[in-house]
Amino acid sequence: MAPQDEGLWTYSTHLVEICPSIFHSTQDTYARLQQIKHILANKGADFMVPCGKENNRDCDLLKHLSAWNDIASAIKVEISELVATRELALCFSVKTSNQREMEGRIQRAVLLLHWLLIKHTCVTTIELEDLTQFNDPECFTLFCDGIRNCRRLRVFNASADIGEASYYRQLLTACKSSRHLQMLHFQRISDAENLGNMAILADVIARNPNLVVFHVDEFSATPGDTSAVLQALQRCQSLSHLSLEVTSFNADEARVLLEMLNGNNVLKSLHIEGKTLPRHIRVNSVASALSSATALVELELVGFRMQTRDASILAMSLVHAQTVQNLVLIDCVPLFSSTYEHNSAEANYALGRNSSPIDPYLYILQGLRCLRSLAFDLLRFTSADQRAFLEVLAGNESLKYVFFDVPYVGYPKELFRIATQTGTASRLCCKPIAMDATDFANLPMGFCVEEVVLNVHANACNNNMPTVNARFADPRTLDHVTDMTVCIAGGIIDPSTAKLLALYLQNSKRLNTLTLDFSAKKESNLLLLDAISRNTSITTLGVEKWCLSKRSATVLADIVHSSRMIHTLTYNQESRVPAKAFFSRLSDSIGSNCTLVSVNTFERQRNAKSWALIQNVVMRNAVFLIRAARFVAKLSSCKGDAEVLELVASSPLLPLRVQLLASVDECEAARAIRQATWNLRDLDGFMRITGVVRESVVCEESSDCRPRLDTLPADCWLAIRQYLSVADVVDNGSSGC
């Protein structure tokens, strides 16, 4: 009997040829595809329809493939807003203990992905954050076969370790069909004898002469095999962003890399990392190769052995070129020479003091006029050198920030004391500082570190209670903190500490990220929850070993539901003790929340139904943000996207989405959002977007002197507008957007 759907039958035949162990016969495969098609039809989606290729629009359906929520534990597939955003969102929300059922769900999901790649041949972007779901070799083969059909692919980003070298061979071979790649990013490239993955990668690069960005975090290959890749990159005339891990490079590979850098007038960003102090690539050789570079704006050297002479040569090269604006020298172990000789008159920094290991950095501060940010291991230098650096920094108005790592637990009191004296404390930035109760109690006034981790034992906290409480009581001490973690192990937070912590949380205007990891009594619970509900700046909230009772869990759910600021929540994920009351309460009311885009917790089967509802709304909100950003960036004029903008206009994530989508800075993104929301409030803008008029409101003359809409005062219209929404205007039977 002839098949009802010739397209599905042809596709079934193709699947049997590719993966015979999964798809045993064309008839069986055809039946499975019909079942999937029926599931999608019930969801309101149809992959059989054409995509953006018909109107020459690019297709970014796989841009957010990271929305696959733990595909290995999937039991269902959700397709969200496919028609409106042309994006694929797959949600697998409930864990299952049935291994056979789980494998079936994985196969279904990979099958959907493969069909998407084949049907939507204009896919231009594929970004993968996790590939562990392709644990079946034939599933991975199916995925690579789909990539082979993406002939217009421009961006391929596999920021995940794919695994075995044979998998990399399949993936790289699939990329050989592309001719328009502009960005290639791999977390790791693995090779083995007789596989020739490096040669295949070199071939992919050679077939894409317009490659702009090439990024590999780790090469796991035999030394010498990377030379072909470097030679292919050397022939890319448009390569402007290069990031390589060079630990395993031999002398020949190092020579090819330096030849590629020497005289390169196209390269704008260079990141070179050596995880175990590479032998054949030295900082002075890189500096010499870059001495004549005219376009380099960002330079990152990570994990190199750097003697004083190396730093001196690098400083002279950068000052001579006058192009680098962002300089990163992290984990570059300084080897301070006992005798330091200047080999050039230009290296004499004329600082009126004896030569010192800090001198090259002083020379950079004084001579590199275009420098805007600098990151280096400032704490490895002596206090005298730190003072000399900060004194010169005080006179440099163009350098906005200096970043440094804190290699130990505790607050660098001496450095910040010097920074306060020199007036440069606000320009020093570092990663989160982990401290115990003593360090926290001894924080000086003017403390300006933005990320703090307070990690103490309950007994130690009690011994330092008066001074710890004093720090929470004085708002000036923690005025600069934007990210705080409070972890109290081995006991319950003291009520007096909880009271002052609650006061700080209630009044803080800069705190964006908060994680509370401790147990608390009933009174302390209510105080802290009330403070969080009154805070107007927290956007990311983490809760561990807390809010476990029915009442506190319910209150927390109400706070999250009603908040217009909290977009990310982690609820007892590590402690694995989530309360059922939290899920049931949040699932009942979360439908009206349009801000929350991420909820992380430890999933239990008894909470499966409520958890699925929460995940569906979270995914919907994430899609809302994308649609609203497209409307703000004027990439869409759809009435439906205008409706969404009204819902998420106050979301703290919207400016970030607009920045990425429109390639603008933070101020321009905020200005665009204000303009878009004002257009929705304006009479002509509202009527035009809702489809009532084409350009502006023009009313006919009235003989009875009734008020006309186009002559209505602006304040009167705005008073009316507050009771109207875009969704209130019903389409007049048109096909819509």
From TrEMBL:
<dbReference type="InterPro" id="IPR052201">
    <property type="entry name" value="LRR-containing_regulator"/>
</dbReference>
<keyword id="KW-0677">Repeat</keyword>
<protein>
    <recommendedName>
        <fullName>Nlr family card domain protein</fullName>
    </recommendedName>
</protein>
<dbReference type="InterPro" id="IPR032675">
    <property type="entry name" value="LRR_dom_sf"/>
</dbReference>
